[in-house]
Design a protein that fits this description.
The protein has about 120 residues and is an all-beta fold. About 0% of the residues lie in helices and about 55% in strands. The relative contact order is 0.32.
């Protein structure tokens, strides 16, 4: 299993970014896919997830601004981030968790910095 994130970078407040997580060895019908983030000095937190059925869930801090989606044919999960704030700064990680909870996998992370 391999998860490879991309799309992070430096953006001004109010701007947008789209993160991608290209997967291999993961079937979206068997795995829930999530995006987490970790700010400096803080624990890793769940940002958004999309379960095996396509149902989505968001942290209160990003609801209405972020959108998680997946392209099954391309084995890719996306995180569209709009109206970014400085508090969104952190390393964003892609996570795949088997729906039975038997195993999970992480990507290497992609840095997102929101600053003027």
């Amino acid at each position: 299993v391999q998860l490879v994130e991309s799309g992070g970078g430096l953006v001004q407040p109010g701007g947008s970014l789209r993160l991608s997580c290209v997967t291999s060895g993961v079937s979206f019908s068997l795995y829930d896919m999530s995006w987490y983030r970790q700010a400096p000095g803080k624990p890793r937190e769940l940002v958004a997830d999309i379960d095996f059925s396509g149902r989505t869930n968001y942290a209160d801090s990003v609801a209405g601004r972020f959108s998680i989606s997946r392209d099954i044919a391309a084995n890719t999960v996306f995180l569209q981030m709009n109206n970014l704030k400085s508090s969104d700064t952190g390393v964003y990680y892609c996570n795949a968790r088997h729906l039975l909870g038997t195993e999970q996998f992480w990507g290497q992370g992609t840095q997102t910095t929101v600053s003027s």
